[in-house]
Specification:
Blueprint (H helix, E strand, L loop, with lengths): L3 E7 L9 E7 L6 H8 L10 E7 L6 E3 L5 E7 L6 E5 L6 E7 L17 E7 L10 E5 L4 E5 L5 E4 L6 E7 L5 E8 L4 E7 L5 E5 L15 H6 L27 E6 L13 E6 H8 L10 H21 L7 E2 L10 E3 H9 L5 E3 L2 E2 L4 E2 L25 E4 L4 E5 L15 E2 H9 L4 H10 L10 E3 L3 E8 L3 E3 L3 E10 L7 E11 L4 E3 L5 E5 L3 E10 L7 E11 L12 E15 L13
Length: 594
């Protein structure tokens, strides 16, 4: 087994970090299923787990050797100004852990536009040492534009000029192999981390998105061939019910181990020889543009971020690959460390949201174009095993995905396996006015008409644990305050929300609401938060006993009002929680008379 030369790096800039790595060796046979689950969620194993050995390594902004071991090893990586990350190494693994990317605890930009006012920016490093490289020549060009700049002492370069939609980027430094990135999309600002190998010559990298032009341009590419290997999920399900009581609370895993080739390129299935570790949210924000086109409508990108996150998280919790959770290649889920502001912002909006199937984390499938018609003239690879739904519909009934009318995809040839969400379909739906919530519900649960594998719903990373009220006895026309005790397991580098705090009173016959005070807010801290909102009683709320119904909604349309466009996340009912007295009643709320 090969020793690891491990680097700890900043996930935004790629710079080496002065980190502390706590390594605890554990007998793998001593870990229960629950222990391993907790480790994947970023928690500690139970106190019953015996720690065989423990050491602390302080690499001081250099790589360090991590020798192979026959024991399971738990790694806790921390540094000043960064969020602590927990990961692990499987016992007797031949996969070399090469780098761990830490997120800043207080990112400078909540907008995820790492370039600031620049249209293109990045950092350049020596791949072997991790040292930033200065005076690297960065040239961008197309048929009409030629621009150039140089990296500074920190390896940083940036261009603020407006760029054509696609460009070529050439990176050159004496003593290093040059890199030529072709067909780079610059429709939104792009940040990159570039590692240069020592040597000569030029390494050409085609950045053409596989879905560009409906897939025509790359229909025979490695990306497409890898996608064809996707196997369907198991679909023998018990009877499923419509979702009316809010979303299922699912805690996302804290980090993900991504498999790469020995050179840091993509690999397929169990054939990866190295790994890199990211927080789950960084993985989604940086990887989404490898599956969805970054210039697509924001609602298309937001919709795509949910199955992208769910598919990655499912592999963390259920993966079978030795030494990593998921491969970086398209036969798993395409991942590359680019950073488009459009896809990063889209992923931030859905922070922590995944898909559930009968209450469990879903292996959420999607493919390029799911219309159930194979155009004989487009040259695209249609691998849907059941096209019985016909043109203008999506589905693959024999694989567990029932037919669903999708007229916006009519006359577009099938491209992919046809299961789950249609990637091009998300763009058609978004351009037709659908929100990301509409799109997710359309493809994954047929707008709350679930059947078979099309029974997946968006989960929530926040839950409503309890409710408290300022007064349990109140007069008519008075003001009541409701306190929401919320638990948050989303990534707190991004606020979760906006969330609407909804309240209604129910007397067994009618509901009474106060929409003017439906508060829109965000959940900003991990764990428990207490949020509050007022509720103004009016003359329509007659004396009597009322149930208190509280709810959390995701404000999908961003209008600060609860509507049918919003997602119901959690709902809580307290029977008989409130007694309303007639206005002017002489009894105090503590039941003593005047």
């Amino acid at each position: 087994m090969q020793a690891s030369s491990l680097k700890v790096r900043d996930s935004q800039t790629g710079a080496l970090i002065d980190a502390e790595v706590l390594i605890q060796s554990i007998d793998a046979n001593d870990l229960t299923t629950e222990d391993l689950r907790n480790i994947k969620l970023g928690k500690k194993p139970s106190v019953d787990v015996l720690i065989l050995d423990s050491e602390i390594i302080r690499p001081q902004k250099t790589s360090f050797q991590l020798s192979p071991d026959s024991d399971f090893r738990l790694l806790k990586v921390s540094a000043d100004g960064y969020k602590t990350l927990q990961t692990y190494l499987d016992a007797n693994s031949n996969v070399v852990l090469e780098q761990i990317m830490l997120d800043q605890s207080e990112p400078e930009s909540k907008s995820n536009n790492l370039c600031g006012d620049s249209t293109l920016c990045g950092y350049v490093y020596d791949k072997n040492s991790g040292t930033p490289l200065s005076n690297v020549a960065i040239s961008v060009s197309d048929d009409s534009v030629k621009l150039s700049t140089y990296s500074d002492i920190n390896g940083l370069f940036s261009l603020s000029e407006k760029l054509p939609d696609t460009i070529a980027v050439l990176i050159q430094q004496q003593g290093y192999q040059s890199q030529l990135l072709k067909d780079v999309d610059t429709s939104s600002s792009l940040s990159m981390i570039i590692d240069l190998d020592a040597g000569t010559g030029i390494k050409k990298i085609d950045m053409t998105h596989p879905l560009k032009d409906g897939g025509f341009k790359d229909r025979n590419s490695q990306w497409v061939r890898a996608k064809l290997s996707h196997q369907p999920s198991e679909y023998n399900l018990p009877v499923v019910l419509e979702r009316s009581s809010g979303a299922v609370y699912l805690e996302p895993p804290a980090s993900i181990r991504v498999g790469f080739s020995s050179t840091g390129g993509t690999c397929c299935g169990s054939n990866c020889s190295t790994s890199q570790v990211y927080s789950l949210e960084t993985y989604v924000q940086r990887g989404l543009d490898n599956e969805w086109i970054s210039s697509w409508d924001s609602d298309s990108l937001k919709a795509g971020s949910i199955p992208y996150r769910s598919y990655g998280a499912w592999h963390v919790m259920n993966g079978t690959y030795p030494g990593y959770d998921i491969c970086a290649g398209p036969c798993c889920q395409a991942f590359g460390y680019t950073g488009y502001s459009s896809t990063m912002n889209a992923a931030a909006v859905t922070n922590g949201m995944m898909l559930d199937l009968n209450g469990e984390l879903a292996r959420s499938e999607y493919s390029a174009q799911n219309n159930s018609w194979d155009d004989p003239n487009d040259g695209l690879n249609c691998t849907n095993v059941d096209l019985s739904c016909g043109d203008g519909s999506v589905g693959s009934p024999s694989a567990g995905w029932p037919c669903l009318s999708d007229s916006l995809s009519s006359n577009h040839g099938c491209f992919g396996h046809g299961r789950g969400m249609s990637q091009w379909g998300t763009q058609y739906q978004a351009l037709n006015g659908s929100s990301f919530a509409d799109i997710v519900d359309f493809y994954y649960n047929a707008n709350n008409n679930p059947s078979g594998m099309r029974s997946q719903f968006a989960s929530t990373p926040i839950r409503l644990d309890s409710i408290a009220i300022s007064d349990s006895v109140i007069n008519q026309n008075e003001l009541l305050t409701i306190y929401f005790n919320i638990f948050n397991s989303s990534d707190t580098n991004q606020p979760f929300g906006p969330v609407l705090l909804g309240v209604s009173l129910y007397d067994g016959v009618a509901y009474f609401s106060d929409p003017a005070n439906d508060v829109s807010t965000t959940v900003n801290q991990a764990g428990v938060s207490v949020l509050d909102r007022p509720f103004q009683l009016d003359a329509s709320v007659l004396p009597g006993i009322y149930d208190l119904i509280t709810a959390l909604y995701m404000d999908v349309d961003g209008n600060n009002q609860i509507s049918s466009a919003d997602w119901l996340l959690q709902v809580h009912t307290q029977a008989g929680a409130l007694e309303v007295l007639q206005e002017g009643d002489l009894i105090f709320r503590d039941s003593f008379e005047i």
